[in-house]
Design goal:
Layout (H helix, E strand, L loop, with lengths): L4 E9 L4 E9 L4 H8 L1 H4 L10 E3 L2 E2 L11 E4 L7 H11 L5
């Protein structure tokens, strides 16, 4: 009997390009295994999974998470600015309402 397989995507966005690869992997594959199978870590060598967070459809997940059919694995870039601080700067630059 053939081992069951699932279809997933691996993606990573950069400021000037993006990586998107569709894969067919064995059922029970983890996020970490899918990243290796996709070739992402070889094509974009600056990714450090100790620093870059990963997730599925915008929700952070550990590398040991087992994938399900049609999951999209995303590798997130580190934030360039603290979102709270950026909001404070924008609010401080607006004229006061009278």
């Amino acid at each position: 009997m053939a081992e069951a397989s699932i279809h997933v995507q691996v993606c990573h966005a950069l400021p000037d390009s993006s990586f998107l690869r569709a894969l067919t992997v064995p059922a029970g594959t983890t996020i970490g295994q899918a990243l290796t199978l996709s070739g992402l870590l070889q094509e974009i060598p600056g990714i450090d999974l100790a620093i870059n967070m990963v997730g599925i459809y915008g929700k952070k997940k550990p590398l040991e998470t087992i994938l399900r059919e049609h999951d999209r694995v995303e590798v997130y870039r580190p934030l360039q600015a603290d979102p709270k601080e950026a909001r404070r700067r924008r609010a401080g630059s607006k004229p006061a309402k009278s």
